[in-house]
Structures are given as C-alpha cells and as structure tokens.
C-alpha cells in the first residue's frame, strides 16, 4: 500500500558541499530517464503537487506545451491581421465602399485608426502571459521559479515572432497588397521598407531567483540588439546609404562574438557549482549538524508538518538560516 504512494522524487541532504555538488553534477545512471539529479529549489519555491509526475512523462508534457504554444502563436495571427487592417482604413474604403460611412461621424476615423487598434492589440497581448503560465503549469516543473522563467521565455519569443514580425509585416502586406501582385519580385523590398524597430512590454517577476534569470535577460538583450542591427542594415540599404549599412555589419559580427564569449566564460557558472569553492567552504566552516537537520525539516511537504498552534507555520516555507 505504501509502495503505491511513494513519489518518484526525493530530497537528499549531504554532510559536505563537495559531495552535494558531485552528486548533482554527475549522471547517476546509464539511462538518464531512469535517474536524474539536480540542485533542489528553495523550500518555498517547491511545487509539491508536481512531484508525483515521473521524469519520463515530463518530456511528453513539455512537447504538449510546445505544441500548444505554437498553436496559440498561429491563431493569434488572426486578431493581429485584423487589427492591422483597421489601421489601413483608407485601403479598406477602396476595397469595401460601405466603410466610407465612418466619415459621417466626426472623430470616428481618428479613433478607429489611432486608438482602437492599439487598445485591441494590447488587450490580446495582456492575456498572453496568463495563457503561457497556464500552459507551463501543465508541464510538471518542480519549482515556481522554473515555471515562471519558462513562461517568460515563451512570452518573449511570442512577442518577437508574432507581435514584432507579424504586426509589422501584416500591415505592410495590407498596405501594398495590390502592388505586390503586379510586381511579385519586389515583395521583399516592399516589406523591408516598412520594418521599424519596436519595444514591447517588460514583465517584472515578483520573486528572487538568486541570479538564475540573468542568462535569460542576456539572451533577450542579444536577440533584440541583433534584430535591431539587421533591421538597420536593411533600412540603410533601402535609403541608399551603403556606407552606413556596411558600417553596421562589424557591430553585428562583434555582438555575435561577444555573445559567444559570454556563453563560454560566464554561462557555465549559472548551471554548475565549482567544486573548488565548495571545498574551501567545507574546510573553513566544516559540517554543521544543526543546519543539516533544519534542511531536512524544511523540505517536508506542507501536509506532513504538524501545526500545534495558529502561530506556528510549516518549516517548508521558512528560511533555512535565521539570525
């Protein structure tokens, strides 16, 4: 009976930091799907209800989340294209004469082309983080920080791929729809001439990841800078400024090389713990039995914590160290 209630996840404490580092970094089994080890999140960061999901099933869950996010991105093209169609009201009047009735109401044309598209698009975009967070919740991640970082990654790529490219290109396509059919070879040039650099919303997280989010921020900045530089190279070329266009190319190459250097020099420190530093800490501080006992108590699930009074709280939400 108890065998059926066992979870496929355990929290292990060690008497030294070096032993914990070696256990977390090494592959424990020839088949990585049967036994994996990683550093435990903070007690208050653990999603206890996801601990009963086997690791091999999490791969299937992740594929399902990726497919769902892709479908959301595809179907989001419908409102974006419709909103960009509202902006091109003059073209719509030519294609659909009854739309000229908006001129009968003073100020309605300005509202439709100036305020309404932005309000509709921002309304849809406002719902995207919640949708992504809901989908990531089904992935089975064991910590809140990983879940929200994964959702932020999905939102970032959604904004880059859907809001930036699709919003700009759909507006350009509607604006030059007829001319593109007459001159199909000029479609890339016409689309590039309408591209401008954009900045979208920044989503602020409300918890401390102890620096684990910095690689993601660095990656976001790198992608944004590369997109800006590629856009400027194309714009300078379209504006008949070849010198400025060629002068931007070294900046693009430098940024790519700088990103590769940062990935090789600093990125491993965010995912791996140095054995040398932990060994020095063990030699300097030694083994603290009280700290080990507090760690064991801290990682008890909430339903296993005995609460004797209203003032006492579960140790799984308390810090490991207290002053």
From TrEMBL:
Keywords: Ion channel, Ion transport, Membrane, Transmembrane, Transmembrane helix, Transport. GO terms for cellular component: plasma membrane. The chain crosses the membrane at residues 63-87, 119-142, 154-174, 217-238. One of its GO terms (molecular function) is calcium-activated cation channel activity. It comes from the Eukaryota. InterPro entries: Csc1-like, CSC1/OSCA1-like_7TM, CSC1/OSCA1-like_cyt. The keyword Acyltransferase does not apply. This is CSC1/OSCA1-like 7TM region domain-containing protein. The lineage of its organism: Eukaryota, Viridiplantae, Streptophyta, Embryophyta, Tracheophyta.
